[in-house]
Amino acid sequence: MAQLIDITRVVVGTEYLTATVHISNDGPLMTSEDLEATTRVYNLLPTIIDHACAGDAGMTFKDCMGDTEIAHLLEHVTVELLARSNLTDEVIAGRTWRELAYDRTYSIQLPCIDDVLVSGALSSAIWIVTWAFTGGAGAVPDVDATVKGLVQLVQSLPVEGEGGELPADEPVDDYFEEDAAEEFDDSYDDDFGPDADYDDYEDEEFDRGPSMSQKII
Fold first, then answer.
1. What is the DSSP string of 154-215?
2. Which of 199, 206, 184, 197 is nearest to 56 (CA)?
3. Is the Cβ–Cβ distance between 117 and 12 less than 8 Å?
4. Which residue from 164, 124, 160 is spatially nearest to 143, judged by alpha carbons?
5. Which backbone phi and psi does 200 adopt, to 5 degrees?
6. Per residue in 12-59, pLDDT tens?
7. Is residue 81 part of a domain?
8. Domain range for residue 176?
9. How far is it, in rounded angstroms, from Cα 139 to Cα 15?
10. Which residues touch 22 (CB under 8 Å, ≥6 apart)?
11. 135 — alpha (psi -120 to 50), left (phi > 0) or beta?
């Protein structure tokens, strides 16, 4: 399977995990460039269209799924996997924005419910989106098994205070930047899971930025 999306940086903060992703130069940037692939994602995760999503064509992801950024689709897939894990009662919120105009690099901000769970869900979402947008060849992703695996992974980890800390001489992968300074305005949430109440956002004005709208799921 060709690599469509690369994670180039992950910042783990006290509230959010923010990943920088790069879309391959020969891959699509918009879902409208491959509606068959977009349909493959929908068929795997049909409830994704019920996510509240302000900033594009309407108030739900259904209104924009056929013509939105691949990175935005990736964010919604990740949120859906997190919601299906049932490991939190919190509203699962996220944001996606483009780093530079005309660039193929995006930032995806997600709540840091558990850094292992969130990074695992993002990696699984990349696998699903890549499968869909590279022809759908090979085994069809098993969403239920994927979510079950994520839950089992988190539950298998030692609880803090029960031997879960790394030894002092154990190297930590610098791919993750622990407790890094937040580089965004978190005064409001942008993406919410399917049970979110977003009526309060109907009249809210969002700064769309130079290249991509702020999102509310």
1. HHHSPPTTTT-SPPTT----TTEEETPPP-S--SS--B--TT---GGGTT-----TTT----
2. 206
3. no
4. 124
5. -70, -10
6. 998 999 999 999 999 999 999 999 999 999 999 999 999 988 766 678
7. yes
8. 5-160+169-201
9. 35
10. 5, 6, 8, 104, 105, 106
11. left
Length in residues, the chain: 217
Do residues 143 and 46 make contact, with C-beta atoms less than 8 angstroms apart? no
Count of domains forming the chain: 1
Contact 126, 7 (CB under 8 A): yes
pLDDT tens profile 86-132? 887 776 778 999 878 778 999 999 998 889 999 999 999 999 999 99
d(CA 87, CA 153): 12
Residue 35 phi, psi dihedral angles, 5° rounding? -70, -25
213 within a domain of the structure (yes/no)? no
Nearest to 21 by CA among 41, 5, 37: 5
- 171 vs 58 pLDDT, higher one: 58
135, part of any domain:
yes
Q: Return the closest-CA partner of residue 10 out of 133, 155, 116.
A: 116
